[in-house]
Design brief:
binds zinc ion, 14 helices, BTB domain-containing protein, 4% strand, three-stranded mixed β-sheet, 3 domains, At1g01640-like, Serine Threonine Protein Phosphatase 5, Tetratricopeptide repeat, flat, BTB/POZ_dom, mainly alpha, 272 residues, Potassium Channel Kv1.1, Chain A
Length: 272
């Protein structure tokens, strides 16, 4: 069908050139609904009298409104990017070791990493308690030991604490140890970051690891997702070599897999 929106050459269409295809129609409806919902929720959460942009939204309809919203989003994105690069100063202080006042010691006697007490205390209540309870005038070469992390993992943890982000290859490599560290040192943002990574990469070869980590970190929703994935891919997972080691180490989780699988088969049989 000739569509005056997505056709390559709409100007050759017959007048009045106002027919649009189903895809464009549905897309336009969705964008407009999204915009309206967005503006309504902003209005509802706004205690102050509505500003000009929002109060005028009733008079502008359809795409004019959507376009306004897109422009606002664009401006907001630019502002946020500036803010992120401003906050990036913390990371530079870590990278260049400017005025560091504490040493973090990984396990296995690997070399320690200098950091800043104030940042650690701001990012984690556990670190704050450790620093509060320590002799508060401890010398700058004073150490906190994190025996469960190796040097590379500790470096990644600190990078995240300073910048709120990690390069993809580091997340992929250290997601399990970082997830456990996030749980131990009570860093909810890192927990969420790791959970997102694990959900995005869940497959037959890592589902058992993710189940184990989610159980260690008491992350029930991640655990349910991993468990259901395992049950739906039983054949690939249960006959893998990894499963033998997993079952020996985690008998309670193996029992849960068996029960969930049994219920799944039962439900399917009763035609649920
Ligand atoms: Zn179209």
């Amino acid at each position: 069908m000739d569509c005056s929106i997505c056709s390559a050459m709409p100007y050759i269409l017959r007048p009045p050139r106002n027919t649009i295809c189903v895809a464009c129609y549905e897309g336009a409806r969705t964008i407009i609904t999204l915009t309206t919902n967005k503006l309504d929720s902003e209005k509802a959460s706004d205690n102050k009298p509505s500003n000009n942009l929002i109060s005028s939204s009733n008079s502008t309809k359809g795409f004019a409104n959507a376009l306004k919203w897109v422009k606002e989003m664009k401006e907001m994105e630019e502002e946020l990017n500036e803010k992120i690069s401003y906050l990036g100063g913390f990371f530079a202080a870590f990278r260049d070791q400017i005025h560091t006042d504490i040493q973090l010691q990984p396990g296995n006697n690997e070399p320690s990493i200098p950091a800043h007490r104030a940042l650690l205390a701001a990012r984690s209540d556990i670190f704050r308690n450790i620093l509060d309870s320590d002799a508060c005038k401890a010398p700058p070469n004073h150490k906190i030991t994190l025996p469960e992390l190796n040097h590379e993992e500790l470096q990644s943890l600190l990078e995240f604490l300073y910048s709120g982000h990690l390069p993809k290859e580091k997340v992929e490599k250290h997601v399990y140890s970082l997830s456990i560290a996030a749980d131990k040192y009570e860093i909810p943002f890192l927990q969420k970051f790791c959970e997102h990574q694990m959900l995005g990469s869940l497959n037959s070869s890592n589902a058992l690891d993710i189940l184990e980590i989610s159980d260690t970190c008491s992350n029930q929703s991640l655990k349910d997702t991993a468990l259901n994935f395992i049950v739906r891919n039983m054949e690939d997972i249960v006959f893998s070599a990894r499963f033998d080691a997993f079952a020996l180490k985690n008998p309670h989780l193996t029992v849960q897999i068996t029960r969930t699988s049994f219920m799944d088969i039962k439900n399917r049989r009763t035609g649920a």
